[in-house]
Amino acid sequence: MNAALWLALAYSSNLFADDCRACHAAIAESFSRTGMGRSITERPAVSPATFYHALSNRHYTFTAGKLKRHQVDAAGVEINVIEKSIDVAIGSGNHAVTYAHRTGQGRLLELPVSWYSQPKAYFMSPGYDAANHPGMSREVLDTCLFCHSDSPRPAAITCRRCHGDASAHLSKPARGTIYNPKQSMEVCLQCHLETVSRGISDSIRQPGRSVFSYQPGEPLAAYKLYFDRADAPQPRFEVNHAGYRLMQSACFRKSAGKLTCVTCHDPHTAKVRDACNSCHQSLHARKENAAACPACHMPKRTAQDAIHVAMTDHWIQRNPKFENPRQENHQPYTGPVVPFYTKADPLTLAVANVREPSAASAALLAKYVERNPANASAFVSLGKMLIQLNRLSDAEQRLRRAVTLDPMLTAARTALAVALGRQGKLEEAARVLEAASSSNPDDPLVWFNLSTTLRMLNRADRADAAMREAVRLQPGIR
Q1: Are 355 and 331 spatial neighbours (Cβ–Cβ below 8 Å)?
Q2: How many alpha carbons fall within 13 Å on the CB side of residue 231?
Q3: Separation CA 249–CA 314 (nearest Å)
């Protein structure tokens, strides 16, 4: 699919608040053409194409509104066939578009092949260029959707993401009755401050905060705390590193807060301002066109976690030196982390540094869930660790709580079934997994665990059927 087609699709499907457009028609129109304004497209059109991924030995075929995946056996017969409708496109197409399927249960599943605009071709989605990638089962959670969508619906980003609640402004249209993002670059950092994409959680939300609860104007630390790897930031470069890399720059550090994202970027038009000469008055700076400065001092680079896109490196350097990766780096970081930008309390920092199961780590997680009694994922993390420590009764208790808090959280049901099965409660474990397979029939691990449990219950036929479904969803699962 070419870029012009993507633009046309995004413009026709994007929705903006009519309340804003009524007074700010020109701004709303120009914003609708930016990457943020085109971040989500419902029911996108896709170009017919085929793609073969050698590492996982899987064939993909794009047809009208659908993506089919299959393998071929020794006789040339298609096996392990899956076909999903393409219901949502995530990304503007400036760099890439990743597709998602909406299940009958209301989940969004990321599809493994994306469109990349620079090579104008289909390749594996970021993180999927591996032999054991998650196939068509990876759920697009709210934590992933947040930076691409205005709401969990999903929907393209609108005015409220940066300006917040407009009710006071609508009742009294005047300066000062709506938030001005120029007051703080934290409005930008809510999405553009990812320090690392693999191995660790680069941020942890504060207790009681839901994913889409950040309000422009509030301190970012009131919403979440950020962490970084303890090693040097060079030569790492990842696809969502703009804010993180900018903060490494001498220009940023010496500006005393004057250099922000909007110094160079106009968010209403996506135009880049010629801002360098406002500070740099050397002979070199005066002789050069300021618009040309980024080409040398902020060059475009290939991201380690998305090798088919070239992103601007926002670490402003006198003489940047780097090598572009030729394949995605899937090696997760497992070392210690340190606070970044925000000040972390001791418990949250200690939890962020938990790596291996131990009695001390379990005690930390237990304290953390006491502080976050509505956080289902935290209960799952604690429950899984307790299973590893063979504290099965404790794990069962925590995981039952997780299922109660979030019945749609498949990881909670799967882990609960493991805790039950390890205690010999096979009948209940099977029931839990049957419920999980109904709630999320696209998860191969659910079917694999169900097959194992049914076989232990001497229900061979049902166990075989469940295993066949696990293999169809995730060939090579073991």
Answers
A1: no
A2: 7
A3: 8
DSSP 8-state class, residue 127:
T
Residue 121 identity (one-letter amino acid): A
- Find tokens 């993506």 and name the residue: 67
Order the strands of the 58-63 sheet from edge to edge: 49-53, 58-63, 66-72, 78-85
Residue 227's alpha-carbon distances to 11, 161, 212, 349, in angstroms, are 37, 23, 20, 8
Per-residue pLDDT of 428-470, as tens digits, reads 999 999 999 999 999 999 999 999 999 999 999 999 999 999 9
pLDDT at 11: 34
Q: What is the DSSP string of 350-381?
A: HHHT--S--HHHHHHHHHHHHH-TT-HHHHHH
Average pLDDT over residues 359-363: 98
Higher-pLDDT residue of 422 and 291 is 422
Q: How many CB atoms lie within 10 A of CB 102?
A: 18
Distance CA 368, CA 380 (A): 12
Q: Is the pLDDT of residue 10 over 60?
A: no
- Interatomic CA distance for residues 421 and 267, integer angstroms: 53
Domains in the chain (CATH in brackets) are 3-179 (no CATH), 181-344 (no CATH), 354-473 (1.25.40.10)
- The C-alpha atoms of residue 27 and residue 34 are separated, in whole angstroms, by 11
List, in order, residues 6 or more apart from 259 with CB less than 8 Å away: 251, 252
Tell me the pTM: 0.91
Q: How far apart are CA 185 and CA 190, in angstroms?
A: 9
Judge contact between 378 and 372, C-beta under 8 A: yes
Give Cβ neighbours of residue 92 (< 8 Å, ≥ 6 apart): 6, 10, 34, 35, 36, 37, 38, 39
- In eight-state DSSP terms, residue 105 is T
pLDDT tens, position by position, 364-391: 999 999 999 999 999 999 999 999 999 9
For tokens 């028609």, what's the residue? 25
